[in-house]
Amino acid sequence: MHNTFQLIHYNFLYSFLALLPEFLKHLSSSLLGFLSTFIFFTNGNYYVILLAFISYGFLKLLQFYNVRRKGILSIAFQIITIFSCEIIERDTTIWQNLRGSALIISMKTISLAFDIGSNKLNKLPAIYVYAGYMLCPANVVLGPFVSYTSYCQTSPKTFKLVSLKVFFQAFLNSLMSIVFIFLSTCFLNYLLSDDVSFFVTYRDALIFRCSHYFVSFMSVACLIISGIDYRSSSEVFGYQVTRPLDIELPRSLVPVVISWNIPIHLWIKSYIFENLKRYGKFKAIILTYLISSSLHGLNVQLAAVLLSIGIFSYVEFRLRNLLAEILDACIAANKCLIDSKGCCITKGHEFTTKLHWVKLINFIFGVFTIVLLAYLGVLLDTSIDGNNEFSLHTNLKKWYDLNFFGHIIVLIWYIMYLISKN
């Protein structure tokens, strides 16, 4: 908690320094970002600095030789570099702590590569501008992803910290993050006992999700305090990285995937999925999740979860959309829009959520989604063995002990889809 308060102080300071002339603004951003990585990662912060400047050199080479497909090559380079750093660093705890920061650096680099390749940007920014963007204290540690344009538009016109509304939004996000960290570290172990095996599975997954909510809300607080220009996506919070209610009380896995980390979802959709759609939707989804998991580093548990949730959500999406078409009812994975007269305006379904049997089907799928999230989330409990290495065998055994029931449920869904299709 002490480190997060320091991070807030750095961003408050940056919000004033950002009003300086361009060179000093970018210089202060990179220096405060360096200090932020140091207080969180200590000596491990040189990996973040190394990744940022090696990436700049690679982008410079691509621009100098006018190489096509800058974005795709940048993705490959980021994956190779992250894998190499993780192999070199033998202390897995250090890399585990800075994994998120390395992901943000990679996302920024890849977005620059695609934007230059598509002529959204004329050329690679100057080194001091690039350093300010990469190491900006608003998101270099906790995220979220911020576009290069949003970073550059920080100016006296966008400095709104004097607004009572913005101050309240920063305070509310900070308060929410504190609530979730206390839930994650203190209360949930006492609220949910070890008596029933499924409750243990659900509790362990919920603890992981609450730690994610803590990071997400604190990252928004830092973003707001920094004064960086952003599009307000919530009247209450100002900006949203995650939507806990969509995850804890889900309709299907589709909104869970979107609401888990909204900026990353939009980034993946814009820069990765859109460039892979020509290979077919299912292949594009699998490749997108493979790239996403690879950018997180050599984390087989996370890769297994990401690939599984990609397949699970795709199967559920196809099954529910097919059932909605067959039954002419509002039971698709995405919620249908209903007009004032109670009619479906999304697909024109005859049977809407006014009917009890439609509500029941949606409720049953929602319960299955909660169960699947507990099943998937338990694998992300990154326990450490005696050799200070993340034990793959121990983590995969958790699914084995649960008889892989999550995968079996989705396999049954897929069989139902094939039968209904024919």
Average pLDDT number: 88
Distance between the termini: 56 Å
User: How would you classify the helix and strand content by structural class?
Assistant: mainly alpha
Q: What are the low-pLDDT stretches, counting only 5+ consecutive residues below 50?
A: 383-390
Total E-strand runs: 0
- Compressed to H and E, one letter per element, the order equals HHHHHHHHHHHHHHHHH
Rg, nearest Å: 22 Å
What sort of overall outline do the alpha carbons produce when their principal axes are compared? globular
Largest sheet: none
Task: Please name the defining characteristics of this protein.
about 425 residues; mainly alpha; 17 helices; transmembrane helix; EC 2.3.1.250; membrane; Wnt-protein binding
Question: What's the structural blueprint in terms of helices and strands?
Answer:
Blueprint: H1 2-17, H2 22-41, H3 45-64, H4 70-88, H5 92-117, H6 127-134, H7 148-152, H8 164-191, H9 197-226, H10 244-248, H11 253-260, H12 262-276, H13 281-295, H14 300-327, H15 356-377, H16 392-401, H17 405-421
Transmembrane segments: 7-24, 30-59, 126-146, 166-192, 213-232, 284-315, 360-380, 400-419
Membrane topology: Multi-pass membrane protein
Catalytic activity: [Wnt protein]-L-serine + (9Z)-hexadecenoyl-CoA = [Wnt protein]-O-(9Z)-hexadecenoyl-L-serine + CoA
